[in-house]
Amino acid sequence: MQTAYFDYAATTPVDPVVAEKMIQYLMPDGCFANPASRAHMPGWFAEQAVEEARLKIAKALNCDARELVWTSGATESNNLALKGVAETRRQRGRHIITSAIEHKAVLDTCGWLETQGYDVTYLKPDQKGVITAEQVADAITDQTILASFMMVNNELGSINDIAAIGDVLKARDIVFHVDAAQAGGKLPIDLKALPVDLMSFSGHKVYGPKGIGTLYVRRDPDLKVAAQIHGGGHERGMRSGTLPTHQIVGMAEAFTLATQRMEQDKQHISVLREQLWLGISSLPDVTINGDADGYPGIINLCFSGVDGEALLMAIKDIAVSTGSACNSASVDPSYVLSGIGLPREKALSSLRFSLGRFTTESEVEQAIDIVVKAVTALRGQ
Q1: How far apart are CA 381 and CA 33, in angstroms?
Q2: Which of 27, 71, 168, 212 has the smallest C-beta neighbourhood within 10 Å, fewest atoms?
């Protein structure tokens, strides 16, 4: 039996259209040159491809292409945003606000900043996994220089009201960073309208290649981001390193395709999520963790009375997870589930199912059949 993939929140397969585009920038007869090599025509063509890709993503996000900085992924984008702003604004204050259920790329970075003398407030979300603008307003002090919140939670699918939070921060001249790794290409994002200063994106979460991402840095003379990687002064001095043309072109193609297919993909995923939930909810004592009305591609389920790790072993023909891929080796309950107040026993009985563009009805039926049988057996019913 072929494994049915339900871990799209961890990573997505590269869309064949994207892969075909990338091949043109890899082979000897393609545009493989270093885009920083301006002494010859192959380098010019590579640089042109990089800048055209930047324009494509800027169009998808409605921002200026000059506001996009290439990185190796959302993790690096988050690090660059938080460390880069903390460094340039430390004379104004050393207080940062975030939430207790952010991705580790934000939480670990904030933890490191604490060792450098910064104070971090970790807001507790509600049971749905949402942070409110009122919570943010109450946490602000005269030392607050930066706030960071994700748009879509990677374990729950809950969606924060980025516009409302941004309005609160903008009124106080506090830099606002958003981790949009799970939102890019899936939810409408208009960076000209949103009160956001920095936003992180990943290629491999939107049917593009791994190892590439971008950081949106709003054009503002007062917004400075200190480089964290040095060596050549690429990307307007914010991020040095040879640009991977094929990955950049792939990410741009993936974002363009995702923008064109956004409603189509959302409808497809919503129908399959409903099918999955209706089938699995035939079991007793199964509940949805977090926000049932969040992003439809992520559904976190608690199977009361069943150990999540044991269930994973029993449903090995389905690719699912107990939480973020960054913590998949941990035997502790998901810090995200604990963060929304779920008791330890229930957190350890939970699995995340995430669906995507290539999920099929037959895979959903396969998952329902396997999960229902496995849970029934583990409960001894």
Answers
A1: 62
A2: 27
State which H helix or E strand residue 308 sits in: helix 308-314
Check: CATH 3.10.620.30 for 16-257?
A: no
Is the Cβ–Cβ distance between 223 and 87 less than 8 Å?
A: no
Give the containing element (helix H, strand E) for 312: helix 308-314
Cα 162 to Cα 147: distance, rounded to the nearest angstrom: 11
Task: Assess whether 326 carries a catalytic annotation.
Answer: yes
Q: Is 69 helix (H, G, I), strand (E, B) or coil?
A: strand
Cα Rg of the chain (Å, integer): 21
Interstrand relation of 144-150 and 198-202 (parallel, antiparallel or unpaired): unpaired
The residues spanned by each domain of the chain are 4-11+262-378, 16-257
Burial string for 188-200 (b: 16+ CB within 10 Å, else e) reads ebebeebbbbbbb
Mean pLDDT computed over every residue of the chain:
95
Q: Which helix (H) or strand (E) holds 256?
A: helix 245-280
Q: List the catalytic residue out of 31, 110, 302, 326.
A: 326
Q: Which residues pair with 150 in a beta bridge?
A: 179
What percent of the chain shows pLDDT beyond 90? Answer: 91
In angstroms, the CA 56 to CA 61 distance is 9
Give one word for 233, left, alpha or beta, with left for phi > 0 and alpha for psi -120 to 50.
Answer: left
HEC secondary structure over 90-144: CCCCCEEEEECCCCHHHHHHHHHHHHCCCEEEEECCCCCCCCCHHHHHHHCCCCE
Q: What does the block give as tokens for 171?
A: 């009124």
Q: Do domains 4-11+262-378 and 16-257 have the same CATH topology?
A: no
pLDDT computed for residue 211 by the predictor: 98
Question: Domain 4-11+262-378 adopts which CATH fold?
Answer: Aspartate Aminotransferase, domain 1 (3.90.1150)
In this predicted model, what pLDDT tens digit does every residue of 95-151 receive, in sequence order? 999 999 999 999 999 999 999 999 999 999 999 999 999 999 999 999 999 999 999
